[in-house]
From TrEMBL:
<keyword id="KW-0521">NADP</keyword>
<feature type="binding site">
    <location>
        <position position="409"/>
    </location>
    <ligand>
        <name>AMP</name>
    </ligand>
</feature>
<feature type="binding site">
    <location>
        <position position="246"/>
    </location>
    <ligand>
        <name>(6S)-NADPHX</name>
    </ligand>
</feature>
<comment type="similarity">
    <text>In the C-terminal section; belongs to the NnrD/CARKD family.</text>
</comment>
<dbReference type="Pfam" id="PF01256">
    <property type="entry name" value="Carb_kinase"/>
</dbReference>
<feature type="binding site">
    <location>
        <position position="347"/>
    </location>
    <ligand>
        <name>(6S)-NADPHX</name>
    </ligand>
</feature>
<protein>
    <recommendedName>
        <fullName>Bifunctional NAD(P)H-hydrate repair enzyme</fullName>
        <ecNumber>4.2.1.136</ecNumber>
        <ecNumber>5.1.99.6</ecNumber>
    </recommendedName>
</protein>
<keyword id="KW-0067">ATP-binding</keyword>
<feature type="binding site">
    <location>
        <position position="410"/>
    </location>
    <ligand>
        <name>(6S)-NADPHX</name>
    </ligand>
</feature>
<keyword id="KW-0456">Lyase</keyword>
<dbReference type="InterPro" id="IPR004443">
    <property type="entry name" value="YjeF_N_dom"/>
</dbReference>
<feature type="binding site">
    <location>
        <position position="299"/>
    </location>
    <ligand>
        <name>(6S)-NADPHX</name>
    </ligand>
</feature>
<dbReference type="InterPro" id="IPR029056">
    <property type="entry name" value="Ribokinase-like"/>
</dbReference>
<keyword id="KW-0547">Nucleotide-binding</keyword>
<dbReference type="InterPro" id="IPR036652">
    <property type="entry name" value="YjeF_N_dom_sf"/>
</dbReference>
<comment type="function">
    <text>Catalyzes the epimerization of the S- and R-forms of NAD(P)HX, a damaged form of NAD(P)H that is a result of enzymatic or heat-dependent hydration. This is a prerequisite for the S-specific NAD(P)H-hydrate dehydratase to allow the repair of both epimers of NAD(P)HX.</text>
</comment>
<feature type="binding site">
    <location>
        <begin position="125"/>
        <end position="131"/>
    </location>
    <ligand>
        <name>(6S)-NADPHX</name>
    </ligand>
</feature>
Length: 466
């Protein structure tokens, strides 16, 4: 299971959406006009996919419900059989107008409401601030499950738009969520993000939308230049520890993500692949000017020897990827005055250990971590969030769930290091490119795989990155 969302698209909180709406209104638009765009945009999608089947639209009391009434009118106008079931009377002026303009009967939404082959959920959007009633949630689940095709208008009803929580409620799975005007964090973050396999944007006339939080996009990395040599393509050093496998995976991944030279500082025996150059760890091993990036953490251990290696990596003036065990040894103060880029790649457990449990959404927490660490933070999980200290954030679509296997994090660390070492992009760009390659490789495999195979599949993903 993975997710399709628009690439490189801005992600706005509910408050930022309201500000964008106010700007549009100040420039001459109106809520009714925006709602007309939203509802007809939804109707376009439903009309295209419903193929003449009966459509049931569930309308809530706010403007999300208003969008639903507009969609109902637009669909009926095109000859699509439509029923509307509402949760009470509209509470906003625009929604009341939209309901009046619909002009056809409105059923009262209840446990008795009859299902239809196509379901459109326009109950709640960005205005929801608390859990929806359990009986309503049950009715919604029943109607969505009974439909052949289900749409969520703006958001699946029952989610907190900013945090991606569901207030403890189980959401049904929708075929398509139509994000109005812009994506919201709940389209991407767990648990809400997992309820929609596909998210599409519907323009509603808000004009140019911008913001520091964007979805992941194809990195646009190219084949080696004609005059490339192994060092110009990027030299990656992986510092090994007692668990050799992890650092071997990172080293292999660095090659498959395009690095020209990969050196593994190891105490282990030479192993295939022979392309990985092996040397014993020594003081001064990181002095080589040609080193583009250093990976430390995978299989490093947490003893004094591991600490010594981490200290040496931090003392070097090379770009660093700090993962796994090294995240447990790291003191954030050590990063304060570092000029060369640092990318930290914690999963949720490592993140909590490093930054504390914290408040806010995964986006807020990643950003707070990045600022405190003065480093790019790749907060991993099915919903990976990357944040830079300057406030920019990249959110990846829900990843391929076959990634939930040992060693895939080591592969990611190697891929990010290759990007840091070979490209001219900044640390957030390198982290994003690494996450893109890693996610794309997993999608291409889309089966039960070993982390070794994932590392090799990075090369196939690279082909698609141009
Ligand atoms: N921001 C924009 O630019 C636009 C937003 N539009 C739509 O407007 C939506 C937001 O509309 P609203 O702010 O009216 O909010 P919603 O329609 O999302 O829901 C808020 C309404 O539900 C009630 N409510 C909240 N929590 C409840 C609960 N747990 N149980 C029962 N009732 C509850 C509130 O009292 C309020 O009446 C967006 O998601 C989008 O669909 C569009 O109409 C067009 C323009
Ligand atoms: N259910 C999932 N869906 C998508 N991606 C996942 C899932 N679980 C884990 N991942 C991804 O797999 C990788 C696992 O990394 P990590 O937890 O460090 O594992 P390890 O230390 O064993 O290598 C991360 O990139 C993470 O984002
Ligand atoms: K909705």
């Amino acid at each position: 299971m993975f997710q399709t969302v628009p690439e490189g698209a801005p992600v706005l909180t509910a408050e930022a959406m309201r500000a964008a709406e106010e700007r549009a209104i100040a420039e001459g638009s109106s809520v009714a006009e925006l709602m007309e765009h939203a509802g007809t945009g939804v109707a376009d999608w439903v009309h295209r996919l419903a193929a003449g089947s009966e459509v049931l639209i569930l309308c809530g009391p706010g403007n999300n419900g208003g969008d639903g009434y507009v969609a109902a009118r637009a669909l009926a106008h095109r000859g699509v059989p439509v029923r509307v079931a509402a949760l009470g009377e509209p509470k906003t002026e625009a929604a009341a107008q939209a309901r009046a303009a619909w002009g056809e009967p409105v059923e009262s939404l209840s446990g008795e409401t009859e299902a239809a082959p196509v379901l459109v959920d326009a109950l709640f959007g960005t205005g929801l601030t608390r859990a929806i009633d359990a009986t309503l949630a049950e009715t919604m689940r029943r109607l969505v499950a009974a439909a052949r095709l289900s749409f969520a208008v703006d958001l699946p009803s029952g989610v907190d738009a900013d945090a991606g929580n569901t207030f403890g409620c189980d959401l049904p799975g929708y075929d398509l969520t139509l994000a109005l005007g812009a994506l919201k964090p709940a389209h991407l973050l767990l648990p809400a993000g997992a309820s929609s396999r596909t998210v599409r944007l519907v323009e509603i006339g808000l004009g140019e939308i911008d913001g520091p939080v964007r979805t992941l996009e194809r990195p646009g990395i190219a084949a080696p230049r004609r005059d490339a040599h192994k060092y110009s393509r990027g030299m990656v050093v992986v510092i090994s520890g007692p668990m050799h496998g992890a650092s071997e995976l990172a080293a292999r991944a660095a090659y498959r993500a395009g690095a020209g030279y990969v050196l593994l500082l190891t105490g282990g025996l030479p192993n295939p692949p022979h392309a990985i150059v092996r040397q014993r760890w020594s003081e001064g091993a990181l002095d080589d000017e040609r080193i583009g990036a250093v990976v430390t953490g995978p299989g490093l251990g947490r003893d004094d020897r591991a600490r010594e290696k981490l200290d040496a990596a931090l003392a070097s003036d090379r770009a660093l990827v700090i993962d796994g065990d090294a995240l447990h040894l790291l003191d954030l103060d050590m990063l304060k005055d570092r000029a060369a880029p640092v990318v930290l790649t914690p999963h949720a457990g490592e993140f909590d250990a490093l930054f504390g449990a914290g408040q806010g959404s995964k986006i807020d927490r990643a950003l707070d971590g990045a600022r405190r660490a003065n480093a790019v933070v790749v907060f991993k999980g099915a919903d990976t969030v990357m944040a830079a200290p300057d406030g920019r954030v990249t959110v990846a679509p829900m990843g391929n769930s076959w990634l939930s296997v040992a060693g895939t994090g080591d592969v990611l660390a190697g891929a990010i290091a290759a990007m840091l070492a070979q490209s001219s992009v900044d640390a957030l760009g390198a982290a994003s490119a690494g996450v893109w390659l890693h996610g794309t490789a997993a999608r291409m495999l889309d089966r039960c795989f070993l982390a070794d195979e994932l590392a090799d599949a990075l090369a196939l993903a690279y082909e698609r990155a141009r």
